[in-house]
Specification:
By secondary structure, the chain is mostly helical. It has twelve helices and two strands, in the order H-H-E-H-H-E-H-H-H-H-H-H-H-H. Helix 3 runs antiparallel to helix 4 and helix 10 runs antiparallel to helix 11. The structure holds adenosine-5'-triphosphate and magnesium ion.
C-alpha cells in the first residue's frame, strides 16, 4: 500500500505535544487512523513502549479495533525496518498494553487498589436491576426514618410535594434528581451549589420574594419570553384579520387577548416588590375570550 499523506490538520493531531487535544471530524475521515499514527510515532520516534501508554475507548468493539490497527501498523513498521529489535518487542508488549474501554480500565484500577478505597477484595459490579432494587430499598428506608424522626424540614417537603394519594411521586422525583446529578463530577457538591442559588442576591427579600432568587429569575425570563412569543403570534393573526371587515368580532376578541398579555408583560418588566406573588396572581386571572 502506498504511504499515506496526512493532511495538515491530521499532522497536528499526530505530532502536537504538551496539551490536551480534542479531535472532532466526520465519520470515516481518519480519526482512528490519526490516533494509531500518533501512537506509532510515540513508539518509533519517542522510544515509548506500547505498554506505557493508556488508550481508552467507550466500547469493546472500538478497543479491539484500536488493538488490531496498532498491531497492523507495528507490522508495517517492521517491514520497513526488519532489524529493529525494539519494534519487534512491541508485538509482545501489546498483549499487556492498556488498550481497553474506560470502564474496564477503571475496574482494573479498583481491583488493584481496593484497599486504598476501603473496599472489600471481593467487590463486584452490580447489574442494573440489582441497583434499581437497592435504590428502592434505600429510599424506602430513608423515608421511614425521616417520618419517624418527624424532621421539620422533611415534613415541609412532604406537605409541599405530596398529595393524599401518597409520597411515591416524591420518591421518584428524588431518584430522578439523583440519577440526573450523577453526570456531574462531584454530584453532591454540584447539588449543594445549585441549592445555594435559592439564597439570592438580596438577603432581606429572600424569604418573601422568590422572583429575587436566581432560579426565580430564570423562570420569570422564560415566562416572559413565552408571553411575548404568544403575543406576537396573536398580533400576526390580528394583522390577517383586519383585512376582512366581516370578521370584526374575531378581531376584537384577539385584541382583547393581546391587551391582556401586554398587561402581564408590563407587570413582569415593572414590578419592584413582591414580584413573584404579583405576577402569580395576575397570571391566574388570565382568561382568554
Ligand atoms: N490522509 C489520508 N490519506 C489517505 N487515506 C486516509 C487518510 N486519512 C485516513 N485515511 C483512511 O481513511 C479510512 C478511514 O479512516 P478511519 O477509520 O481512521 O476513520 P474514522 O474517522 O476513525 O472513522 P469512524 O468515524 O468510522 O470511526 C482508513 O482506511 C484510513 O486509512
Ligand atoms: Mg474510528
Amino acid at each position: 500500500m502506498a504511504k499515506v499523506t496526512w493532511t495538515k490538520e491530521q499532522q497536528s493531531a499526530i505530532y502536537e505535544k504538551g496539551s490536551n487535544i480534542l479531535v472532532a471530524a466526520a465519520a470515516g475521515s481518519g480519526k482512528t487512523a490519526v490516533l494509531v499514527e500518533r501512537i506509532i510515532n510515540k513508539i518509533v520516534n519517542e522510544n515509548i513502549d506500547i505498554d506505557k501508554l493508556l488508550v481508552v475507548t467507550f466500547t469493546n468493539a472500538a478497543a479491539s479495533e484500536m488493538r488490531e490497527r496498532i498491531l497492523d501498523a507495528i507490522y508495517k513498521k517492521i517491514e520497513e525496518k526488519p532489524e529493529d529489535v525494539r519494534l519487534q518487542k512491541q508485538i509482545n508488549l501489546l498483549n499487556k498494553a492498556s488498550i481497553c474501554t474506560i470502564h474496564s480500565f477503571c475496574l482494573e484500577v479498583i481491583r488493584n487498589y481496593f484497599y486504598e478505597l476501603d473496599l472489600s477484595a471481593n467487590f463486584r459490579i452490580a447489574d442494573s436491576s440489582e441497583i434499581e432494587l437497592l435504590k428502592q430499598d434505600v429510599i424506602e428506608e430513608l423515608f421511614e426514618e425521616k417520618y419517624y424522626e418527624n424532621d421539620e424540614n422533611f415534613i415541609k417537603l412532604i406537605n409541599m410535594y405530596t398529595t393524599y394519594r401518597g409520597d411515591e411521586p416524591l420518591k421518584e422525583l428524588i431518584l430522578k434528581i439523583y440519577d440526573y446529578i450523577q453526570s456531574a463530577p462531584f454530584p453532591q457538591e454540584w447539588l449543594e451549589e445549585k441549592i445555594e442559588m435559592f439564597n439570592l442576591k438580596d438577603e432581606i427579600e429572600k424569604k418573601t420574594d422568590y422572583a429575587k432568587t436566581l432560579w426565580g429569575d430564570i423562570l420569570l425570563e422564560e415566562y416572559k419570553n413565552k408571553i411575548v412569543e404568544n403575543r406576537l403570534k396573536l398580533e400576526g393573526v390580528k394583522a390577517e384579520l383586519v383585512r376582512f371587515p366581516e370578521l370584526e368580532k374575531f378581531t376584537s376578541t384577539i385584541l382583547n387577548d393581546i391587551q391582556m398579555l401586554m398587561e402581564i408583560e408590563e407587570i413582569i418588566i415593572n414590578a419592584k416588590d413582591n414580584v413573584w406573588n404579583t405576577i402569580y396572581l395576575k397570571a391566574n386571572e388570565l382568561k382568554f375570550r
